[in-house]
Amino acid sequence: MKKRFVTNLFFLLALNILIKSFWILGVDRGVQNAVSADQYGLYFALLNFSFLFNILLDFGLTNYNNRIIAQHPHLLPKYMAQLIPIKFAMAIVFTVVVTIVALSLGYNAHAMKLLGIMCLSQFFASLLLYLRSNISGLLMFKTDSILSVLDRFIVIILCSILLWGGVLKTGFKIEYFIYSQLIAYVLAVIVAFTICVKQAGFLRPKWNYPFIVKIIKDSYPYALLVLLMTFYNRADSVMIERMVDNGAEQSGIYASAFRLVDAVNMIAYLFSVILLPLFSRLIKKKEDIRPIVKISFHLLLVLTVCFVILSQFYGLDLMNLMYNKHITESSEVFRILSICFIPISMTYIFGTLLTANGSMKYLNMVASLGMVLNIGINLFLIPRFFALGAAYSSLIAQTLTALFQAIIAMKIFKIKFNISYSLRIILFIGSLALSALLLRNITTYWVYNILITGFVMVVLSFVFKIFNIKDIVSLLKASKE
């Protein structure tokens, strides 16, 4: 079972990296280039606005269901019959709340139409996650892995035809992108539902009020954490679009800068997927987690530091390579957002560790602070610096929340970094930055410089004993125990 778990876990990571990387850097980037900045900016703001209320579509139900089905597979027919009606009730509440808030914020008829389609897409996306929780709970890992990328794969096909297939007589519109996502979610849900029904048999929907109360009681700490983190991670583009005169355009600039950071961030997120069960098992066995924390910190350190340094030197080149409008503005925002990758990656270590430990009180306190900071600083900076102000706000909020999570985790688990170790990290960062600077002054071939800097990063990580092969071997061995 352990070997099967690890094998399927890496299968999941490989599929996500392959498909979602093409989704972010290929199709989504292609859409951004095909439409105006204000069109994509409005879409991006509305998407993040709908995400702010996404907790109303789930409220921890998916994680709750996954645990129950994994422990008691025979309950699948009973739970599907009771949970699917709840999902539809949640969809109604979600749509009503989103509509009321959107109208109160003054969105026009065109924006409300797009938002309505997105609400429908969000419902099907949430329903897909619930159906997948049944499939993974039954230990059908490969099936679940395929379903995890099926919707994106369908959108890639549809949008590739529309963008580059020469089938459109007029230009590509943002509505085509939104409708493609809705179609993809619906098809993926049909596939997932068919698989679940095949496993569960005949279903007779039931409404069970005591069951709903129990789910809310069991899931609210996790639901609250998701809600708070969503607000301080997703509010930026919404506030940009609403607070300044050319808000849609500024939101589009922010989206262009955010996209590459989001693509790299996906790798760190998938890394946390391995850490959560690993930390959980070690804590349950009361074994020392510090070696795994150190290994994880090393692996993410070299990735984050290299990305941030390269982003500072070649941000303009990267934006010029990816986009065809607002290059200078996007590069300035990108340089700031790229630094956010460091605290975000640290959150995937220490936040994951606290989650595995069940320290939800501390996590919710930190997330509350992050939400207040992000919204408060945005209110001050966005009217003055537009998208760049939102980037600075995100950096401040992400850095402080990651710092507090790290301090809490290190205190609980008695993790210490001595002076010599900290000095080696500082020397590694300084040496890598100096190498990148020298390379930039020696040659103007920036693509080669990026590749060479990556090689220098690996060499320096060995020189300063930040990274070694034994760490990787130890991590893999630990995941198989």
Observed structural traits:
single chain; 481 residues; 2 domains
From the helix content, strand content and strand pairing, which structural class follows?
A: mainly alpha
Task: Report the major sheet.
Answer: none
Give the strand tally: 0
Percent helix: over 70%
Q: Could you spell the SSE succession in H and E letters?
A: HHHHHHHHHHHHHHHH
Mean pLDDT: 83
Can you describe this structure?
The chain has 481 residues and is mostly helical. It has two domains: 1-207, no CATH class; 241-481, no CATH class. 85% of the residues lie in helices and 0% in strands. It has 16 helices and no strands. The protein has helices at residues 2-34, 37-51, 61-71, 76-104, 109-137, 141-164, 174-200, 209-243, 247-284, 290-322, 327-339, 341-357, 360-412, 419-442, 446-463, 469-480. Helix 1 runs antiparallel to helix 9, helix 8 (209-243) packs across helix 9 and helix 9 (247-284) runs parallel beside helix 11. The relative contact order is 0.10. The model has no long low-confidence stretch (mean pLDDT 83).
